Amino acid sequence: MMTIDELVAKAKADGASDIHVICNLPPKYRNSGELQDMSDEICTKEYCLALARQLAGSEENFNELMTKGELDAADTFAGNRCRIHLFKQQGVPSLALRLLSENIPDLMTLGLPIAVMDLPKLHKGIVLVTGETGSGKSTTLAALMDNINHNYKRHIVTLEDPVEYIYKPDLCAINQREVGKDTESFAMGLRASLREDPNVILIGEMRDRDTIETAITAAETGHLVFGTLHTGSAADSIDRMVQVFPEAAQTQIRLQLSMTLVAVLTQQLVQRKGGGRALAAEYMIVTDAIRNLIRSGNTPQIANAVATSADIGGQTMDQALIGLVRRGQITRENALHYAVNKEFVQRQMG
């Protein structure tokens, strides 16, 4: 059977993004969005256990995996940094491993809306990068942090689970804290960060009320906060943040969000013509009109406001998909598959 270094080396050479090891199946990797077998060999229970023990890093961590059922980590194999997720299924460990880019890409090379290039210039507020798992959120955030690092003299504090990209401080002082190792939780690390004199705070995932509440407080007190959510649009992101609070507090949270939220970037990776994947991104810049919609709870109208904000750099997901079709990067069929309003996209494509 292939060693972990051999698996990563092959995946890297073939341009794959993720590796999956599951008992009684051949090892697989995700290439251009689709799973493919890496070899004809079948992963045995003994192989899965041995691989999990190695990747856990210690007997204590391995025992935690076998007791709790999952374990997150990050490490370097075959010269490539990887995000590791070990988990039990039917009593046997499985592996989902994400290959991270060796170098943080330049922000300009990601295919993002041009207005996103203004985000590193901000001094305060909340910026959300949202999308499903595997949509490139971590890469976009890393590129944003790296842009700040090379252009501004600031203190960056990140809270990650686990730490993925490793930044090399340039003009910035950077502290990267890993949840579970350097701090107990996102909420506790975020509260502590307010006493660490940061200019920029990166939150790997805004998953609960305490984290969201503290992020809003951080933005209100003059910090620039970047965070992620697993949501499919700007409107969904606002509703998700508000709905973690009890109904009696939601009016106040909407008011605070309307004053602190600066932008929401929502991403999808769509199969590109000829192989690879293209980034489709909705980008909402918070205007006075959108602030009013947030305050009043009229989030269904936000999509219309974003659709008419092209003059300041905003765009909906459907507009992004239409643009990719017109530039010959994706097929009409894929655009319709990923579209929010399929009739609108069909009509615009003719």
Give me a quick take on this structure.
The protein has 350 residues and is an alpha/beta fold. The chain has 13 helices and 13 strands. A hairpin with a 6-residue loop joins strand 1 (18-21) and strand 2 (28-31).
Report what the structure shows.
It is a single chain. The chain is α/β, with parallel strands linked by helices. The chain folds into two domains: 4-99, Beta-Lactamase; 107-315, 3-Layer(aba) Sandwich (Rossmann fold). The protein has 13 helices and 13 strands. It has helices at residues 4-13, 45-56, 59-68, 137-151, 186-193, 209-220, 234-243, 247-260, 288-296, 302-307, 317-326, 332-338, 342-349; strands spanning 18-21, 28-31, 34-37, 70-77, 80-89, 92-99, 125-130, 155-160, 173-178, 200-203, 224-229, 261-271, 277-285.
The major pleated sheet works out as:
7 strands, mixed
Global mean pLDDT:
95
Distance between the termini: 51 Å
Name the overall outline.
globular
Count of beta strands: 13
Name of the CATH class of the largest domain: Alpha Beta
- Structural class estimated from helices and strands: alpha/beta
Q: Beta-strand percentage? A: 15-25%
Give the helix level as a range of percent: 25-40%
Query: For the record, what is the CATH homologous superfamily label of the largest domain?
Result: P-loop containing nucleotide triphosphate hydrolases
Number of domains: 2
